[in-house]
Amino acid sequence: MDRRDSLKSLLVGSLAGGLLVNGCAPEVKVPLVEEKSEASPYGRTEKEKIQDEKLRSEQFFSVGELTTLAVLCDLILPANDEFGSATDAGVPQFIEFMAKDLPQHQLPIRGGLMWLDNRSNKLFNLDFQSSTDSQQKQLLDEIAYPNTASLDLRQGVKFFSLMRNLTLTGYYTSEMGIKDLGYKGNTPNVWDGVPEDVLNEHGMQYDEKWLKKCMDTETRNEIASWDDDGNLIS
Q1: How do residues 178-191 score in pLDDT, each as one tens digit?
Q2: N or C: which end of the chain has fewer CB within 10 A?
Q3: Full-prediction pTM beyond 0.85?
């Protein structure tokens, strides 16, 4: 299993969006389902839409910080033969939005980016985005495995865990990421009814008319009709 498949398995086993975004801040509650309202029963309320537009009009990270974020996100989740990288799916923009929407992420992310540059300068005399691909991976290997990382790197470990969670959440909730997961949504299938042994166990059986009308794959799309007494006509 390659790194990308491993990350996909991590997300599928973690209830996706809400858990991953909130994984490093358990005291903060992020609802997995949007609350209904009279204004918008199933989507964003008007108040939420206004708030979203306000956040999109603002900018928190500098151009340099966003560039470093893009490099880091693509190292966490690179492109493969079928799908693009994290930046191709707009993950840096997603993280920018989340930092504004959930301000508790601002200091950990900005401080983590500074830590990343400081560590890179210490190791290679270059900031993180200016170092080579192999140097960047060498640095990340130091902080990607919490159980084996040095204690003096714990700030970097915590930052990388947060970034990995945000990158996964941003990617696998994007159109590209959903296609990568192979999620097809609700699709019709074929149901052949209750198994015969279960029917026999309960002393029940299907009416032949119902079987022909509802279990026949060739006629299942026809609309049934009943008489006034509730009997099936056709």
Answers
A1: 999 888 777 767 77
A2: N
A3: no
